[in-house]
Specification:
By secondary structure, the chain is of the alpha+beta class. Helix content is 30%, strand content 37%. The protein has 5 helices and 11 strands; from the N terminus they run βββαββαβαββαββαβ. A 5-stranded antiparallel beta sheet has the order 2-3-6-4-5, with helices on both faces. A 4-stranded antiparallel beta sheet has the order 9-10-8-11, covered by helices on one side. Strand 9 and strand 10 (171-179) form a beta hairpin.
Length: 202
């Protein structure tokens, strides 16, 4: 079944600090919409912590087709990025980037210790984040002649659609949004009104 709602962050989470044997782990979480946002955020964290040994992170995007990446940034394989990604999964959030900045304190933690530290820092970060539920919307463009305005507006009201943009000239063009699982029903309704051209967007 297609998912039409998902959990994500309301905004960047407040920075958290987790310490283990003098190593400091600073945790961050950010809502993201595209993979291209990841690099600039990670670079900003590197600049903020010039003495940091590692900036490890994981991100996930999408609702039905998920894409994700986990990056150990020089830590032993799968000792940082994957434990962070594990927390993204356990909090069931998407469209999110979680990064943990490590400043080495002089004592090696070993792979087990690193996994534990990165996991804990990511968990604390997501516990401090504001997680919200968002609805996946389908957008439609409606084109029609002015006399049909009433019918269109009535249908929009009936179906509880959100108007995203409108252009009213000799002919009218509206973009409306509907919850994804109601999209087929709405499409069908407008297709029955022959004077109205309806087109799926996105």
């Amino acid at each position: 079944m297609e998912v039409d709602s998902y959990r994500t962050l309301d905004g960047p989470a407040p920075e958290i600090l987790y310490k283990d044997r003098k190593s400091k782990f600073f945790g961050y979480a950010f809502p993201i919409a595209t993979e291209s946002e990841v690099k600039p955020i990670v670079e900003t964290l590197r600049k903020k912590y010039p003495t940091a040994n590692h900036v490890c992170y994981a991100w996930q995007l999408g609702t039905n087709q998920l894409t994700y990446r986990a990056n150990d940034d020089g830590e032993p394989n799968n000792s940082a990025g994957m434990p962070i990604y594990g927390q993204i999964q356990s909090f069931e959030v998407t469209n999110v980037l979680v990064a943990v900045v490590r400043i080495f304190g002089g004592t090696k933690l070993g792979v087990g210790g690193l996994i534990q530290a990165y996991r804990t820092a990511a968990q604390m970060t997501l516990e401090n984040a504001t997680i919200i539920e968002k609805i996946v919307k389908q957008h439609f463009q409606l084109k029609f002649d002015y006399p049909y305005m009433d019918v269109v507006m009535r249908t929009i009201k009936q179906k509880n659609l959100e108007i995203k943009s409108q252009k009213m000239e000799m002919d009218c063009a509206l973009v409306v949004a509907v919850r994804k699982k109601e999209a087929e029903d709405v499409l069908g309704t407008f297709q029955q009104l022959h004077q109205i051209k309806v087109k799926k967007l996105d």
